[in-house]
Structures are given as structure tokens and as C-alpha cells.
Specification:
Shape: globular
Radius of gyration: 25 Å
Order of helices and strands: EEEEEEEEEEEEEEEHEEEEEEE
Number of helices: 1
Number of strands: 22
Strand content: 35-45%
């Protein structure tokens, strides 16, 4: 009944009975509604424990990073099998060196940077800015009020949020609605569009009131619990979702292969098996080189930085790379006037993280 686009008001207490086929009642079912990539922590290409101190950004589980802006406190990040129902992995932070007296401008946080292309439809920075809802599952050995924020890529627009952990070592789902920002610059290209930050501790100048946009650098909420203040404290998170609208939907699971490809836009690992040849130098003494072309699994966000491990060399001593967003070329150059030369057996990290 009715026409397309009609709105019907159902009285309070009424019951709608479906005696046939009903559509459009399930909320947002778009599998890509989540602006967070790898929110269920299913992809972990680095597969290692990261130690977070005052040395800057360190990526761990794909698309998630840790950062400390102080050498006083240290925490680790690692993927674990501790997870709520319907999930099988989470990201775990563990305090290994406590900072019980955080300096006013120091902070500790877990973040994901969202590429501008993935937020362009939010219209942030305009009068048409859309609200978003953040949801996630969290578990901690420490209870209390915790904080975090959304910020822009230019790091001059901030909106603080808070959530409460009621019971220690118990999974709890949190949902937070955040109004769209009608001011500031929000990148919509291949640079950072939104910074999502979960605070594990912040100094007094970085704490503020929740629920409004401003230009002062704020990373957490006034009065928050600082996990970093308690040695051996743990904090787990999974099912992280950021979607358009003022209500949270169930976590949008996508197939593992799709999730992996989305992560490989920013980072992947390549195995260089064997690269070399046979050199016989001419009278000019020119060196011979061998090349290997590799195509990225998907087009990367930008031309990546390529870092190789230490290969085994024979009659060679260096390995170099030339890269674009589509692929890279590896080159090894001979160091002997004649004979075989090669570089082999090394892992290569291809990195275009934000």
C-alpha cells in the first residue's frame, strides 16, 4: 500500500505482522557500510608483537597502529584469539611499563587512519555534513570511563567521545553517535580523511569535554581512566565499525579475501626467491644487473616504500627497488667481473600506509 517514498506513522504499541514478503525493514545491509577496514582483526600480515613507546607510529594488525608520545610508558599490541561471540580475533594492548604521572602533552593511543576516498560522501566541512555512529566490542582489566576522538587529516579538527567499561575482563559493546563536522578541511583523496583514536592515556592539555567539534588538540575525555597508568593492564578491541547515521547496525562482515585485498592497498609482503645472472664485463668495466618485475596484488594507495630483509649475496652486495602504485622492479648488480651473481631468499615489505 502507498507509493514509493511514502512515510507511515505506526502508533505506539502497534504490531506489524508479516503474512507475505516484506523488504526494507532490516536496516542498512550494505556490506561496505563500515568505513573501518579490518575491524574484526581477521588480517594480520605482519604477524608479530609491536612495542609502542615514544618512537612514533607502529603498525600492527592490518590498518591499526599504536602511538606513544612519551618514553615514560610502554605498551604492546598483538592479535589474539580472545574474542566475543561471532568473532575469532581481537587486538590486545598490554601495558609493560606504566606511566602513572602522564606529562601534560604526552599521550598513548590505538588508531586507524581512514583514506579520504572512503569518507568523501560524508560531506564533512560543509553544511550537509552527515552524522556517523561508531560501534565496537571492548574488554579491559581496568574499569571506568575511557576516551577517544575523531580528527581530520590536517589534525586541526577534533571531537572527543567517551565510553564506560563496567565490568573487568568482560566483553561489552559500545555505540557512540558523532555529529558531522560542518567546518574545517576534510581530505577526500588518497591522504588521511579521518583519524579514529582510542586513548590509552593522555596528559591534561589533551583532555576535554565530549560531544562537540573544535580546533584545540584533544585526544581523550576529561577524567578518563588511563590504562597506561597500570602495569600489566590489558585492553582488547574488535568489531570496530564507523557508519553513516545515528544508530549502529550489526558488524558488517566481509569475506576474508576481500578484507585482505582492502588491506593490501596499504601494505603487503613479497618473497624474493632468486634474482641474478651471469656477468662477463666488457673492457669498460660496466657492471651487469638483473631485474625482477612484480605487480602489486591491488593498486596501492600511493607509490610504496619497499624494505628488504638481508638477502644472501653471491658476487653482489646491493639490492635496489623502483616502485609505483601498480608494481615495483627489484634490481641486483654484479660485483665481480665474471661469473654468477645473485641475491636470494629475502622477505620484502611493500608499504603505502597513511
Amino acid at each position: 500500500f502507498g507509493d514509493s517514498g511514502d512515510t507511515f506513522t505506526v502508533p505506539s504499541g502497534a504490531t506489524i505482522t508479516n503474512n507475505g514478503t516484506a523488504t526494507g525493514f532490516g536496516g542498512n545491509t550494505d556490506p561496505f557500510r563500515n568505513r573501518i577496514i579490518n575491524g574484526n582483526m581477521s588480517v594480520d600480515q605482519r604477524n608479530e608483537t609491536a612495542t609502542i613507546n615514544g618512537t612514533g607510529v607502529t603498525y600492527n594488525v592490518d590498518r591499526f597502529l599504536g602511538r606513544g608520545v612519551s618514553s615514560a610508558g610502554v605498551f604492546t599490541l598483538v592479535r589474539t584469539a580472545v574474542a566475543p561471540t561471532n568473532f575469532y580475533r581481537s587486538l590486545a594492548a598490554t601495558v609493560t611499563t606504566a606511566d602513572s604521572s602522564i606529562a601534560s602533552s604526552s599521550s598513548y593511543r590505538v588508531q586507524q587512519f581512514i583514506e579520504g576516498y572512503n569518507i568523501s560522501d560524508l560531506n564533512w566541512g560543509t553544511s550537509d555534513a552527515q552524522s556517523v555512529t561508531l560501534s565496537f566490542y571492548v574488554r579491559s582489566s581496568v574499569t571506568g570511563t575511557f576516551g577517544g576522538n575523531l580528527a581530520n587529516g590536517d589534525f586541526d579538527r577534533f571531537n572527543v567521545f567517551s565510553y564506560t567499561i563496567n565490568s573487568a575482563n568482560t566483553w561489552e559493546r559500545k555505540t557512540i553517535t558523532i555529529s558531522g563536522d560542518t567546518s574545517g578541511n576534510w581530505n577526500t583523496g588518497n591522504s588521511i580523511g579521518i583519524r579514529l583514536n582510542f586513548s590509552l592515556g593522555a596528559g591534561s592539555t589533551l583532555l576535554g569535554s565530549a560531544g562537540s567539534w573544535g580546533s584545540s588538540t584533544k585526544e581523550g575525555v576529561t577524567g578518563q581512566t588511563n590504562l597506561i597508568a597500570t602495569n600489566n593492564a590489558t585492553w582488547y578491541i574488535t568489531g570496530v565499525q564507523l557508519e553513516v547515521g545515528t544508530s549502529a547496525t550489526d558488524f558488517a562482515f566481509v569475506p576474508f579475501d576481500v578484507n585482505l585485498q582492502r588491506c593490501q592497498r596499504y601494505y603487503y609482503e613479497y618473497q624474493l626467491g632468486y634474482l641474478g645472472g651471469y656477468s662477463r664485463r666488457a673492457g669498460t668495466g660496466a657492471a651487469f644487473s638483473a631485474l625482477e618485475d612484480a605487480t602489486h596484488p591491488v593498486q596501492m594507495r600511493a607509490s610504496p616504500t619497499i624494505t628488504a630483509g638481508t638477502p644472501t649475496y653471491i658476487n653482489a652486495s646491493s639490492l635496489s627497488f623502483t616502485a609505483s602504485s601498480h608494481g615495483f622492479v627489484a634490481r641486483v648488480t654484479s660485483s665481480s667481473s665474471s661469473g654468477y651473481y645473485r641475491a636470494y631468499e629475502t622477505d620484502v615489505e611493500v608499504n603505502a600506509e597513511l
